[in-house]
């Protein structure tokens, strides 16, 4: 088994262990999603788009993936962006729940939880890092001055952010700002479903 295969297996083992705690099995498509996420985080250019059918559990797998990233690299700074702050907060709560209850994450949970809430969490990690381990924001929230090693854009395109040409242009302009927040070797993952023909997820290959 090469190093890439081992990394994918380690993340899938982490997911299997979490599903066992919940009394669930791991669907095959969840393993494929996890391996895809790992490949984005690992391989240049470290950018990727995950689109899957509704209720496929993609956000569930992404939360498990983020928790495992913190296990492997506790110094990682993760920014979760969604169409609205409360949607991003749900992802942070999901990650926090995994960290609190996964037996492999025991040492990540701080004894004094100064930053351990629905909108931000900070795990035990090397000192000197300013940003929280995980922070959530609505896509049009204040992200000035932030830095992140992993940015997860989870359902940023919804009717409220994309139902007019002006809103779509505002959204694209906002997304262009993320390159100034992402660390030089950082990864950016988009998760979502198109809500318009002129979707932000459209690529030149679609023409």
Structure description:
The protein has 207 residues and is an alpha/beta fold. The chain has one domain: 3-Layer(aba) Sandwich (Rossmann fold), CATH 3.40.50.300. 40% of the residues lie in helices and 16% in strands. It is built from six helices and six strands. The protein has a six-stranded mixed beta sheet, covered by helices on one side. Helix 1 crosses helix 3 and helix 3 crosses helix 4. The longest helix has 19 residues. The protein is globular. The mean pLDDT is 87.
Sheet having the most strands? 6 strands, mixed
Might you state the CATH topology name?
Answer: Rossmann fold
Please tell me the CATH architecture by its name.
Answer: 3-Layer(aba) Sandwich
Q: Give the overall silhouette.
A: globular
Main CATH class: Alpha Beta
Number of helices: 6
- Rg from Cα: 17 Å
Residue fraction in strands: 15-25%
Name of the CATH superfamily: P-loop containing nucleotide triphosphate hydrolases
Q: Roughly what is the average pLDDT, rounded to an integer?
A: 87
Total strands: the figure is: 6
Give helix % range: 25-40%
What brief labels describe this structure?
6 helices, 6-stranded mixed sheet, globular, Rossmann fold, alpha/beta, 207 residues
Secondary-structure blueprint:
Layout: H1 3-21, H2 28-42, E1 47-50, H3 58-72, E2 78-82, H4 85-101, E3 120-121, E4 134-138, E5 148-154, H5 159-162, H6 165-176, E6 182-191
Parallel strand pairs: 1-6, 2-4, 2-5, 5-6
Antiparallel strand pairs: 3-4
């Amino acid at each position: 088994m090469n190093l890439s295969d081992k990394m994918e297996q380690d993340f899938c083992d982490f997911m299997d262990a979490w599903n066992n705690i919940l009394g669930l099995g791991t669907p095959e498509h969840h393993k494929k999603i996890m391996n895809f996420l790992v490949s984005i985080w690992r391989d240049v250019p470290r950018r990727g788009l995950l689109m899957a059918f509704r209720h496929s559990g993609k956000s569930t797998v992404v939360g498990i993936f983020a928790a495992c990233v913190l296990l492997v690299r506790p110094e990682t700074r993760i920014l979760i962006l969604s169409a609205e702050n409360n949607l991003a907060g749900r992802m942070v709560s999901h990650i926090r729940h995994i960290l609190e209850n996964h037996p492999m994450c025991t040492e990540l949970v701080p004894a004094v939880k100064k930053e351990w809430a629905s909108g931000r969490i900070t795990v035990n990690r090397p000192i000197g890092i300013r940003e929280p381990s995980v922070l959530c924001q609505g896509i049009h929230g204040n992200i000035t001055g932030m830095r992140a090693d992993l940015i997860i854009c989870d359902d940023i395109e919804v009717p409220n952010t994309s139902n007019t040409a002006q809103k779509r242009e505002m959204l694209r302009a906002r997304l262009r700002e993320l390159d100034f927040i992402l660390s030089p070797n950082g990864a950016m993952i988009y998760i979502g479903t198109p809500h318009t023909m002129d979707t932000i997820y459209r690529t030149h290959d679609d023409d």
